[in-house]
Amino acid sequence: MSHRQLRGLIAVVLVLAVAGICAAGAPPVADTVNIHVESVLAADTHEGMDARLASMSDRLKALFDYSTYRLVSRNESKTSCGRMVAFTLPGGRILHIAPQEVGDGMIAMELILFQGAQPVMSTDLKLPNHGVLILGGPRYQEGMLIVFVSVDSPDAGRAAPPDISTTTPVSGDHP
Amino acid sequence: MIECNDIAPLLSAFHDGELTPQEMLEVARHTAGCSECDATLAAYRTMGTELRESPIVEPPEWFALSVMTRIDRLRPSMLTRFGRYLRETNERIGASLSLGTAAVAIAVLTAVIVTPYIQRLSTGQAHALIASADHMPVSVSSVKAGAQNDVSSQSGAANDAHTVISRLQSENPAVAVWSEPRSDTTVIWLPDRQQ
To answer: Is A12 near chain B, with CB under 8 Å?
Structure first.
């Protein structure tokens, strides 16, 4: 190999090394997660369904048996895996959501529900992309607070369709 | 007046004819009138003659071998070794092919190792690890334990499309969990303890 060829090769190596260093310095590609949190007051005051809850009307009726559903607050946030987001809920409650992994149509996350500064529930779970988690039960005003947590990520892909099965309420204090 | 101290450094160059014409003239004039400098110049002539007439001594055969052995023992620099490797490769498969191979290898290494794609790979491995662990598909479950509830010990066949709760802790003894798979909805019911 001639000196000229050797110099050319060294130049190529240097250019690639510089490109690699620049790429390493760039922020890593993070999985984006969109989180929507909607707080709904459910009560037996016979006021019907809040028009703003039309999109989740069927879901509410299938899961609960209240006569009043009223949207109290609606929040949304965009975050990435490893970055916690805090949502302020009605009644002095705070919900921390920290997505952990995204993939295979699922979004893994950690949720912690606080009543003031006191954690009252903590969970690690994986939700299907576009899946919904409902946190319910805390008393609020004249009824119960139902918190819809829906997550989606463009990086999660699609999961296999779920099996069709019936919903079976379990014993407890839920309606 | 030029002194001997000025002329002495020029005598060797004068003997070799390496001075400027003006210097050559000055040195010649000085040595013509200075026996000491003329003797020094004569000594240069004699030494030159003797060196030219001395026999040429051939080095012994072991000398070259010894020198080359010592050179081989010296570890060459990285660049030298890399150049040597390329030269040998070039001899074997040709310059263009070796250049292309090296460039492609470096480009692939740069793309795979240095860029964030490696993080994608590690994330995929983490998914595989989690998939192998025991998780609870939340179709129907209820937790009515005592002071602290932890459902991570319950397990079953996981379906990727179902919500999977791997841990749930609460001080509340009346926590209930159920799901509505048709709408991908999972409920964690956490009534106030005062109820």
So the answer is: yes
- Measured N-to-C along each axis, helices B95-109 and B78-93 cross at an angle, to the nearest 10 degrees, of 120
Tell me what pLDDT residue B125 has. Answer: 40
Complex confidence, ipTM: 0.72
CB contact under 8 Å between A162 and B124, yes or no, is no
Structural tokens at position B4? 């001997």
- Put the strands of the sheet holding B176-180 in their side by side order: A48-49, A68-80, A32-43, A143-152, A132-140, B185-189, B176-180, B140-142
B168: closest CA of chain A, how far (Å): 4
Q: With contacts defined as CB-CB under 8 Å, which chain A residues touch B110?
A: 16-17, 19-20, 23
Q: Which residues contact A158 (CB under 8 A, 6 or more apart)?
A: A105, A129
Q: What is the pTM of this model?
A: 0.50
- Cα torsion at B144, B145, B151, B152 (round to 10°)? -170
Q: Which of A71, A3, A81 is nearest to A37 (CA)?
A: A71
